Amino acid sequence: CAYLLHAAASKAGVEPWADANLPVQNGLVAWLDASVQPAAGEKLAQPAVADMSPLDKWLDGSGAKHDFAQPDTAMRPRLRLWNKTAFVRFNGRGAVMRAEAPGLELHDATVFIVAAPQSNEGGFRGFFATHAKDKNDFTSGINIDLGYAPSNQFDAINVEGTGFGGQQNLRTAKSEFSHFHRICLASTPGANGVQLFVDGQAEGSRERKPGVLKADQLFVGARFIADFGGVGSYFDGDIAEVLVYDRVLNADERKTVDDYLAAKYGGVGKLPPKVETPGERRLAQLKNPPALQIFVPGFSVRELPVQLTNINNVQYRDDGALVALAYDGNVYLLRDKDGDGLEEDVTEFWKNDGQIRSPIGMALTPPGYKLGRGVFVPSKSKLSLIVDKDGDDKADEEIIVAKGWKESFHQVDALGVDVDPRDQSIYFGLGTWNFANGYQVNDKGVAEYKLSDEHGTIMHVSPDFKSRETVCTGIRFPVSLRFNKDGDLFCTDQEGATWLPNGNPFDELLHIQKGRHYGFPPRHPRHLPNVIDEPSVFDYRPQHQSTCGMNFNDPTIDGTTFGPEWWQHDALVTGYSRAKLWRTKLTHTETGYIGQTQLLGTANMLLVDACVAPGGSLVVAAHSGGPDWGSGPSGMGKLYKVTYEKAANEAIPSLVWAESPREVRIAFDRPVDPKPLARLATRASIDGGEFVAAGDRFESLRPGYAVVQRQMNLPRFGVDVQNVQLTPDERTLILTTAPHRSAVGYSITLPGARPQAEAPGKQPPALPQQPDIDLGYDLSGVEATWTPENGDPIKVWLPHLDLEVARAFTVASAEHDKFWK
Q1: pTM attached to this predicted model
Q2: Among 104, 239, 411, 495, which has the minimal tally of Cβ within 10 Å of its Cβ?
Q3: pLDDT in tens, 1-42
Q4: Which of 455, 448, 363 has its CA nearest to residue 407?
Q5: How far is CA 814 from the centre of its chain?
Q6: Among 575, 573, 540, 570, which Cα is nearest to 552's?
Q7: CB atoms inside a 10 Å sphere around CB 166
Q8: What angle do CA 667, 671, 673 make, to 5 degrees?
Q9: Minimal CA–CA distance to 606: which of 589, 581, 588, 586?
Q10: Nearest to 760 by CA among 670, 646, 662
């Protein structure tokens, strides 16, 4: 790739150890040459380097002393000495080098880079960048990267900077990965002032307006985007040489430099594939993940044999019919008439003829409801009751329950609804007026947001629909509202910090209480000083999960719940943009609810809702399309039924914790079959990293935000599993490991540790599942010691300081059962 750097070059000339064959040295301000690093280090009395050595410093040969460094051992690229060629290998997962050059500027520039991308996962993977301190590279300096979209070949070079902002691909040809290419960029103000050359051939150009390219910091192997956390968009590939001039070379000069580089690298051929080293583990994503993978044993997955457009909400009536609200506003009733456990019969309960726009959220009328059997549906500009008054399973009327607020300019405004089981009053949500400008700051800098606004609230409507009031404020988009068994109201709310700093940093589960403010927009010294931001019960991490559907795992009409008994009353939550299914256990304390969450599974479609079904099952609604919005009202969706095969008597993991720095324990709710242990001892694996979670390899959907790319780019590392054994009661699996050295997220994979769950009888065959158990944990918790009057002290790990919370969160763990006794 080509780079540009700061203007003031050293007058001392190039370093004595630099390659004397470089034909043009005038104006050179930075020169990174991997081939001379061993010699340079020897002259400077630095330790000798070998192939695959971590590179802590890449010395600048220009004479300007702009050495690039990486003090963090986990983020160092590696120097390759291969087949008489030297280059620096960047892993695309955090390896980067940086030079400090405060006050340096470029007006005109020519940059050469000899690089071989190994892959392009999208998200602006950066060869090189400069920027003004704490400012974005693309507005204050320059960035040269592989563009936004992922690709399986080298077909994009995006170049941006001061005076030429906005992504634009200047590549016009296509090349293979893993081969060196000579990239040259010339930059000067003018109509075609930015010109790209690859392997000596002119390619694209773009206009550059007047401006100075700042270079307080320079990066090789990444970009700097202050708006999204700083360093990110890491490059996966090899860089052999970088030359930066503070002027535009003429055509003859450019050709002589290109000829010099071609002579050095033209005959290298295909470079070797990446070799993983400790600290550089790459996420091995599955090419064809299951439609819906459940991470624990004992469950089967089947697709309902129906053809419906995208379904937003599902819920079972008291007569056993499955009610499905479609994104296009139609409402369907699904029944299992052939007795195979899957609903295949579809009838239309309500035909939407344009009355309802963007319906998201649904609540069923209680049994014996005075107005008839129906569904409450929030949509754009209103809350409706779609009701069947004559009992023929066809809705007769739309009754307007609430309306009259100013329509949001978003696609949605009213969303999320539930009926209070105590008095049959209705609660629904009104989304924020402007998710990108939460304070509604006008062009004079004055915030127009008011706590008295109905937007961004949870509303309460009286049972007779004659009055409504605001329950709470500070809500962003409350997609789902539900009462739990104790009559407390909860909602899912969505991440907003991408558009408003500190405005819902993560997707949330909220306990709704009257008079509270829930943080969107957050307290602000000038715009919103008189609120206290109520914390969430649980944050679903990392960012951009898009929590949507939620239902509590309460008994259905046949008295069953989903999964084992110790899952009863837990919240079952779906994540749309990254296709996740969670189980969140809630326990109440004097200071509010505390949540503990297990990631149950991941799908290859967008998961929008899930509800408990009779027979110990869960119906999951999935949209087609990609993040964030899917294929919309006209797209085709799918419905899945996840069934707990109780008769299989599979042991289900109930808890995972780090017992010590070198020991991880997994509790099961019943004795474990010891037969697979011989395989696990050599095949069990643990990954660690800031954003590592269970079953990451199954995640096939991710929104294209830069912060998500940063999550994927950060380093992962392995924790060696040295031994696996069972406790004598066969209830706890003990993994002896290498030391855990970082307080980050960890995931365990137990390969082949579960059979394919199948139900007896008439049910169709289940969809395939990977035969693995996938679990997540971190290093949180406390060590507790119980000293009885007679006997030895008993030590145990607990997940929380509050003993009642700890007791609730350690259910079905034999070790903890003994402790509590």
Answers
A1: 0.73
A2: 411
A3: 333 333 333 345 899 999 999 999 999 999 999 999 887 766
A4: 455
A5: 34
A6: 570
A7: 8
A8: 105
A9: 581
A10: 646
